[in-house]
Amino acid sequence: xxxxxxxxxxxxxxxxxxxxxxxxxxxxxxxxxxxxxxxxxxxxxxxxxxxxxxxxxxxxxxxxxxxxxxxxxxxxxxxxxxxxxxxxxxxxxxxxxxxxxxxxxxxxxxxxxxxxxxxxxxxxxxxxxxxxxxxxxxxxxxxxxxxxxxxxxxxxxxxxxxxxxxxxxxxxxxxxxxxxxxxxxxxxxxxxxxxxxxxxxxxxxxxxxxxxxxxxxxxxxxxxxxxxxxxxxxxxxxxxxxxxxxxxxxxxxxxxxxxxxxxxxxxxxxxxxxxxxxxxxxxxxxxxxxxxxxxxxxxxxxxxxxxxxxxxxxxxxxxxxxxxxxxxxxxxxxxxxxxxxxxxxxxxxxxxxxxxxxxxxxxxxxxxxxxxxxxxxxxxxxxxxxxxxxxxxxxxxxxxxxxxxxxxxxxxxxxxxxxxxxxxxxxxxxxxxxxxxxxxxxxxxxxxxxxxxxxxxxxxxxxxxxxxxxxxxxxxxxxxxxxxxxxxxxxxxxxxxxxxxxxxxxxxxxxxxxxxxxxxxxxxxxxxxxxxxxxxxxxxxxxxxxxxxxxxxxxxxxxxxxxxxxxxxxxxxxxxxxxxxxxxxxxxxxxx
Length: 592
Known about the structure:
The chain is of the alpha/beta class. It folds into three domains: 3-157, Beta-Lactamase (2-Layer Sandwich); 170-317, Reverse transcriptase/Diguanylate cyclase domain (Alpha-Beta Plaits), CATH 3.30.70.270; 328-579, Alpha-Beta Barrel (TIM Barrel), CATH 3.20.20. The N and C termini lie far apart (118 Å).
């Protein structure tokens, strides 16, 4: 054997990355056709490795490999010539070969030859009985071998290998997962994804270092994985900075998790990754019989996102978190329909009590959603989802329109009430926000001084000079501004002095904490004094007891809002509630 030629042949075989890959229907189909054409029980696509014959595809064979010693396919690979053994018992060389001793009597094989002339192995048929084979049969076997090689080259070169890393890509992973579903048994299996960098880190690196640097990192990591992982673990390059790792079917969580934790630490040393990236690893189980390949990939992405939020950087896929994210996505998808469907969205109103006059002078409009299938959805759940999407402006527009409509109806009933309406900071960047608001106020005959817009402290603090201009314009037209959730953000007193705000709403968490002790009460008292000294009217949210209401009044708080006064209610109930409250106050005055 020419040593240099053999090394070149083995190198060609390795470069095709086909050894020890999963069974594939595209190869099995050819093998079945060959077996049926010859009418023989055994057929195989056999690849010649250093010391073994490994079967990429097989019919009638239980094991995955046999020794290379005196294997006919090894001769076919070396000579690149067809080989027919009509009867092993009459062949001086192969009579005592492992196949001959196992009872095989007939062999016919044709070489699998690469475009550069290297023999990878053979497409072969075998039987336990001797046979004669004609030219027609060998021609068909040769043609089928060419089809095997075309399949090998197609999987390697056409859309299945990432050029930068040289690893199989996402499409190959999907194909392999489909093959596992067909051939992989019923036991659950593990799969992992290594994510080198967060999206923001990736974008910054691409901008600062350029794509060539990222290519260097990818190649280094790909080589590291090939050198580090055991031969049973397959690697795939499935995203710009993501690698999927598919261990053998025998892998367990107990054995794999420490290995992944070690890998996470080691990969950070490659190409100076620790200075620029934060790798993470997500793991997920999947059932080959019931899990679709696309669902496996989706679970992988969920797992690696959870890993980014974990302390260790390694996390398993969670069904509970996945259900939460899928529910969030559904809410996001269904919200545009809710905006157009009567009775899905509605407003409720929670009164605010003036501690100075004892009167309800304002109420906050709160959005509620009754989903046709999910039922009542808490605003704490759906509002943050919508606020993080491009639907936030449509939500604010719906709330403003319906709040003004209800306020107009209340005023026609003789109810003198102001409404506080929550809007998003994104509304402050709408070029026509003020113009559209004034049109709505005119349409519903509501004076600007009867509405108040609430924005969270964090949202207000993050806005631009352009937003400030809009806030001042709103103030000039008589619209009041309230800073909601005060104390939970990152207030800058110097910046707050620039805001044309009228009201500060102390977050309910601080009010609830007052029951814990003197330090908490001192904090709330200080917030009230600070806000009033800056000229703000102070509203305390989340007041649920008479004790809290009395304490806040003693601290100088202007208004309170919470369950102690009233739960949020529909507009018709609000009208009745206000009427009963006025009647009760009038009766007390008459008695006095």
